[in-house]
Amino acid sequence: MGFKDKMKKAAKKKTTKSKSKTPVVHRDDLDEAIDKWLSGDKKEKEGKAEKAQAESVMLPEAEEERVKACMDEGTHHSGVKLNDKVTISVQSRYTKISTDSEDEIREIVGDKYDEFFKEKSKVELTAAALADEELLDKLAKAVGDDFDRYFSVSEEIVPTKAFHEQRATSTDVREMFEKLEDEGLVKPYKAAVKRA
Predict the structure, then answer these.
(1) 174 near 168, Cβ under 8 Å?
(2) DSSP SS3 for 185
(3) Which residues lie closer than 8 Å to 98 by C-beta, 6 or more apart?
């Protein structure tokens, strides 16, 4: 048996099978790097859990203070500094709102619906449509009855900038927002936290 054959045989001995199809390879020379990575990963997870717990305390209080400042000054502020140590920023971003919720939202916001919300549609060609040269030629003229076969369509309702800003500057809009949020109809994304 030659040197290369012995190397192959030795390498096979160090590869063990696991329940998954991913091979397990043992490399003593990588133990230190692996241990550092595992330690860093553990610290990162612990740090994320600690930050999440702190955010759960800070964010509701910061939102209350931000809204109070907006109401007092009659202007929209996208964030607030806490103790000049951290800045809490509220983005004008919300989770997707199904168009099925339109009637419920209209019932709550009344004639402000068109000011506070707009419908947004998205139409995409499927992979099958893009690969079909004949279809692409047809599309250049007209889609016709093939629309549902080749297009996937999604629709959603999107809060406007006016809604986002007025929910922090107007008591009436704030009450509408709280009712929309309580009903699970409009949910803003979580505010961001960063060093000041």
Answers:
(1) yes
(2) coil
(3) 156, 157
Residue whose C-alpha is closest to residue 156's, from 100, 104, 99, 93: 99
- Cross-strand partners of 157: 97, 119
Q: Which two tokens stand for residue 184?
A: 């699970």
Q: Which spans in 15-101 are helix H?
A: 31-73
Determine how many CB atoms are found less than 10 A away from the CB of residue 167.
26
Instruction: Give Cα 16 distance to the centre of its chain.
Output: 39
CA distances, 164 to each of 29, 70, 80, 135, 173 (Å): 55, 12, 16, 42, 9
| 196 residues of the chain, pLDDT tens digit each | 655 555 556 655 555 554 677 788 888 998 899 899 889 989 999 999 999 999 999 999 999 999 999 999 999 999 999 999 999 998 888 999 999 999 999 999 999 999 999 998 887 888 898 889 998 888 877 767 777 776 777 788 999 999 999 998 999 999 999 999 999 999 999 888 776 6
Q: Enumerate the domain spans of the chain.
A: 31-89, 99-188
